[in-house]
Amino acid sequence: MNALQKTLAIIATLALISQTIRHAYVLWVEPRESVLDKYDQPMKGEIESSGSLQELLARYDKVHKEAEEKRQQHLKEKGEVVAYGEQLQTEPFKSEATLHTAISEWEKKSGEIRELRFYWFVGLVLLALGWFAYKKLGRWWGLTLVIAGFGEFIYWTSPTFLGPGTREFDRLLVNKFAYSVISLALLIAVIWTFNIFSQKSERTTL
């Protein structure tokens, strides 16, 4: 039993430490700029500076109207819709597509933040029940719930690889970093409370 607890504790510690370090790196160390940025369209800077989804929607609404007017004009003059390749390469279609992608990413990251918070607190409840069961009902019952709780912590604070581009991506990273740190602190507390690495526990097992 003690050997299993040690193994699981080591695995959980390695997972939480490594992903916490990665979150910190992406947030504060990883370069966000490229030498090619000066050649990119100004829309990229507008997206990155947007402080809310409403700001992005306002920009998209304006560009979308311009794009629709161009589509209708093109249809009247040439009798056909704008070719897909042309829409990807010319304005305002290119900005429309870029903003559409940015809005979709923003909404996706907002959803991930909600999921992170909900399931992390589910993990916290499982951990609390596991601690109680470990102390009062039986070590195997308690350990099962504790593992389930830390499984939620580790999975939902795992690294996000898509992004950056919007402030919502940074907010997701901040949340994941904070919850990873708290999860690591809780893991240390559980290791200490359960005496998993204590010499006394080893002698008792032997």
Describe what this molecule looks like in 3D.
The chain is elongated, with a radius of gyration of 25 Å. By secondary structure, the chain is mostly helical. The chain contains eight helices and no strands. The chain has one domain (2-205).
Sum this structure up briefly:
With 206 residues, the chain is an all-alpha fold. It has one domain.
Which segments are poorly predicted (pLDDT under 50) over 5 or more consecutive residues? Answer: 201-206
Distance between the termini: 11 Å
Number of domains: 1
| Proportion of helical residues | over 70%
What is the β-strand count?
0
Average pLDDT level: 85
Q: What spatial form do the alpha-carbon principal axes imply? A: elongated
Give the C-alpha Rg: 25 Å
Structural class: mainly alpha
| Count of alpha and pi helical runs | 8
The arrangement of helices and strands along the chain is HHHHHHHH
The fraction of residues assigned to DSSP E strands is under 5%
What's the story with the biggest beta sheet? none
Set out the fold topology:
Elements: H1 2-28, H2 43-49, H3 53-78, H4 84-89, H5 93-136, H6 139-156, H7 167-193, H8 199-205
Characteristics of this structure?
206 residues, mainly alpha, elongated
